[in-house]
Write a structure and sequence with these properties.
The chain contains 18 helices and 13 strands. The chain is α+β, with helices and mostly antiparallel strands and about 500 residues long. It has a 3-stranded antiparallel beta sheet. Helix 3 packs parallel to helix 9 and helix 5 runs parallel beside helix 7. It is globular and about 75 Å long. The two termini are about 15 Å apart. The N terminus is likely disordered. Its EC number is 3.2.1.26. InterPro entries: 6-hairpin_glycosidase_sf (IPR008928), 6hp_glycosidase-like_sf (IPR012341), Glyco_hydro_100 (IPR024746). This is Alkaline/neutral invertase. GO terms for molecular function: beta-fructofuranosidase activity; endo-alpha-N-acetylgalactosaminidase activity. Invertase that cleaves sucrose into glucose and fructose.
Amino acid sequence: MGIAEAALHTMPGAFAAHSPASNLPLGADARRRKRNTNLVPNARALQGLLKIPRLRSTRRQCQRIDDLARVTEGNGNWVKDAMNGASQVLGDVSVPDQAVGGNGGLNGNAVKPPPQRRKTSSVEDEAWELLQESMVYYCGSPVGTIAANDPNDSDPANYDQVFIRDFVPSGIAFLLKGEYEIVRNFILHTLQLQSWEKTMDCHSPGQGLMPASFKVRTIPLDGDEDATEEVLDPDFGEAAIGRVAPVDSGLWWIILLRAYGKCSGDLSVQERIDVQTGMKMILKLCLADGFDMFPTLLVTDGSCMIDRRMGIHGHPLEIQALFYSALLCAREMLTQEDGSADLIRALNNRLIALSFHIREYYWLDMQKLNEIYRYKTEEYSYDAVNKFNIYPDQIPPWLVEWIPPKGGYFIGNLQPAHMDFRFFALGNLWSIISSMATAHQSHAILDLIESKWSDLVAEMPLKICYPALENQEWKIITGSDPKNTPWSYHNGGSWPTLLCSQWHVSR
């Protein structure tokens, strides 16, 4: 199995094995940890019904995550109330029930054996050594990999933290190698960091939000100068550049959760009550009613992989592709029970609307480009052709010569009177992996990449977007960001991570 199969396996399909329980050891020692304000309730906190106190000043011993699972299983009232509250989404929907979710009728053993080792090259061996050196340990167990490991960087800022989105390709690599423990630990420890409190102020994370990153800190214990404890310190955007909360973290977490179950055969993790509840809280946050009329997720600049101001506020393609994929994964993993019926109906409703919206209105090829040229504006009525009041003058001069006769892609963003015609690699490639794109559109995207290989890849890894913002446009849209100068970082820079997705969809 390669990266291709692992990425494909995050999509819905028949599970290969079912695990009634997990025996993966976490190896927690006697070191103590301090709980953060936004952590999930620990064993003692869960004993009170619906009481989720602030835990910033509470000191607890490092616990096995399996012990916490047993506590939640024995506290039905609190869990049922929390899960029922998370399931009240969107009210009644008209989409008929479908056979979805759950693991019914599946049997098997706990964990698949690691895949057989094959001969590796020196380059691959070196890559594994570097990945091993980047691993982060908490209470004696691996919980993730840091975002960057540069020994020459004396001031790494937040690059020495474990980012949820950055760990996903590392996690897939570990799954392919049969090293399941680190992925399992990552999933469950980040779940503990999820924000569980409803907040009324604008400086705290909303209920269900997953942190962008976390760091393991060692701090001295009160009253003992020689004793220390390890602390998981999450960042929900309070310390991030721009102070923007992450939209994609929860979506990536759901996708990786399903990848873990598919690769390891250990479905006990996704069946845990705390995991089911955490997943529902993420979905509730994404499916909540708001002022937006579109089925796409409305987000701000800097809330995803492009985490700086780059003019992607609104409905960026990357978030919509991840949203669609996470909905599919969650729908398959949700357990069948009374509290899940409304949520499953809401998922079906949103999936249908979202896929139609992206396939119909985000798609661009030569035929669609000619249609936009002929758009009439200021159309009012339900049968309007130009539903978003797009002015043909928005079409940039570079696009007419760049788009090939054969091929097409999903544009980067769509809002009233605005189409972002830039090609964003992750959104388009993940649209193929998740089947949000039709078969015809998937082939057309690959045809475009092949036709424009010199622009999108050349001799470097795949560019995150094309073309780059330059000159006055760069100053206005990025705020003259010196880290996002043309063809660097997020502004048309080359990202090796994207090669994994590109290699998969090209096979």
